[in-house]
Every structure is written in C-alpha cells, then in structure tokens.
Amino acid sequence: MYPxxxxxxxxxxxxxxxxxxxxxxxxxxxxxQKAKRDNFDSELIFNLAFAVFISGVLGARIFYVxxxxxxxxxxxxxxxxxQRGGLSWFGGFILGASYGIIxxxxxxxxxxKTLDLLIxxxxxxxxxxxxxxxxxxxxxxxxxxxxxxxxxxxxxxxIFYLLRLKQERIHKEGEIxxxxxxxxxLKRFFV
Length: 191
Known about the structure:
Layout: E1 4-8, E2 11-14, H1 15-37, H2 42-67, H3 69-74, H4 89-106, H5 111-136, H6 148-167, H7 175-190
Antiparallel strand pairs: 1-2
Helix pairs in contact: 1-2, 1-5, 2-4, 5-6, 5-7, 6-7
C-alpha cells in the first residue's frame, strides 16, 4: 500500500486525498459537460458539487468523530487534523445529500431531474475513490484473486456504464437515481 505519494518539504501528498480530488474533478467536469449537452445550467453543477463536497467532507468528519468520541474527547485538537485520516462515508452522505437537496429546492429545481443527471458521475467518482482506498490500505477485506477495493471499483465502473446507457435513453424522472440505489446496494451486498 502507498498511503503517501510524495513529500515536498513539509507538505505530504496522501494517496487517498489525491484520489478524492481527482475523483471530484473528473466527475464534476464530466457532469458539467453532460449538463451543457442537455441545456442544463453547468455553472449550477459546479456550485452544487462544490457545496455538496464541502458539506460532505464536514459531515464525514463529524460522523467519524462521533463514532470515535472517546478518543476525541481525550484528544480534542485532533478533531480538525484531517491529514491523520478519519472520514465516515455515511456522515458524508447524510450531510452532503441533505445540503444538496436544500440547495436545489432553494433554487426551485427538480431534485430528481438534477440527480438523474449527476448520479452516474457519482458512481464514477466512487470508482476512482476506491483506488484511493487501495493505495491507502483501508476498506480491505478477504478476497481472491484481487483486493476487495478493486472489485468495488470495477463494480462501480460497471454501474457508471449502465447508468450512462440508461441516461441516454428516455426515462422517467428519478429512474436513474433509483437504479443507482438498487445497483449500489447490490454491489455492497456482494462485495
């Protein structure tokens, strides 16, 4: 495993953080391109993605701290030390999704229509992020013949592909979102 990519003076580039940034950049860029093709406000996509990213990281950290409250009560300064790790996917999802829905409703946009546009690229971002897990040495389990993070990444790439196919066909509002929820749940069950 390679949790540190390199050090530049006092700055350390961590593999998980780098993959998180790459996944965010690639996913948002591709979603914005799709938004332009669909005559959807691509600037809104950037603003929404940035706001959800920040609130998601904040929620992921808060949830992780709550899960490990005894440790952080003894070491309160470490609450803000993200470079030492400690993010919870569920916390990120809860706060990120909540803020995203509030953001869309405040702008009087259809939540389902917007999520149908974004969700395939979320799956792509998750696939890239799982490579960060592999490099970091986290989220592992028993597997054969390749690490579990790669099974997860490959499954998410397949989900991305299937959702993009569905996205290019006529579909009902919310259909892409609910297909993602079904496929992602199936992936989690088998992985």
